[in-house]
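User: Please predict the structure of the protein below. I'd like the answer in structure-token form so I can feed it into my own downstream comparison script.

Assistant: Understood. Taking the following sequence of 386 residues as input:
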Amino acid sequence: MTAIDPDTLIDDTTFADLGLAQPLLAALADAGYERPTPIQRDAIPVALKGRDLIGLAQTGTGKTASFTLPMVHRLLGGPRRTRVLVLTPTRELCLQVEESVRKYSKYAPVDVIPVFGGVGYEPQERALRSGVDVVVATPGRLLDHLEKRNVDFSYLETLVLDEADRMLDMGFAPQLNRIVEQIPKYRQTLLFSATMPPEVEALARKYLRKPVVVQLGRRSSAATTVTHAVYPVPRGRKNDLLVHLLTKEAHDSVLVFTRTKSGADRVVQDLERAGVKAGAMHADKSQRERMAALEDFKSGKLRVLVATDIAQRGLDISGITHVINFDVPQQPEDYVHRIGRTGRAASTGDAYTFMSAEEIGMVRTIERTIGQEIPRVSVPGFDFGT
């Protein structure tokens, strides 16, 4: 593997300097983007050359554009058939990638279809059989279409594995293997991940050929634009503390993570009773309900979105000011991904973690992983030590 040192690259690079075609530069200008983020600056030239690539960076650093921009560039002027497959772990991330492709192909004739479960099967089947340039899919639903021969990957040129670590965490390794067995062996493969555990390294060795590695920050580092705080609180008083914080001080846009779906619903009920507009997003909600809650949160109709780990990755929402871990994440890497929802693209944000006495050990594990001690904030009347 060939590694790139981001410190060797200049900071005043523009998108035009990266070699992107004029239609993409025009679309970027329309979107108001002037300069690439570090991961985009480092990864795009490599991807344009057709090299295999491993991109490692924190959530919120612009990884999606790092592969969608060169992907659209390489599709320009080519034959109209399925040449790119992007695999994502969740429906939400699938839709985010689709939106990114559409945004950057505004002045280019590129077709894209999102393929995921929980929605109608036949419209996807018709679109796949008619042929599209880019397929963005979750592994399970795509495998259904492959087994029914609804999609032809004979001319596939590029495979993208987005949030590879999350896909493996969700148990998609068998589906990934079955999908890769049915696509051309000689292709470009781009793997993007927030962390690089041994399972992802093994995946990279299996699927990629002499990849260039672009890595920003340590492999399990937390976003440097986020201020961290831990709030000691008895387990049974977490709802009260959340209501207290969100009604006492101004918090513009808050994403709250709970461990369970029922816990998310209870938090929403308590917040609504206190006059805080909130919505829930979890697996018991239909796809339509989840997308409606997400759109209301993006537009500001909801001040608080309460979610289970379904929203841990793949939510591209600007302006989230606070992420609150209502329950301490059980895996340290999940902490990194959760707080990556705020402090995005050089903005600043705050990450609160509610810690019961039973969760002290889990917080200490997180601190060891991110290499820093998180300050404790004691709220009078709520600290379990009082």
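That's the full token string. The radius of gyration is 21 Å.
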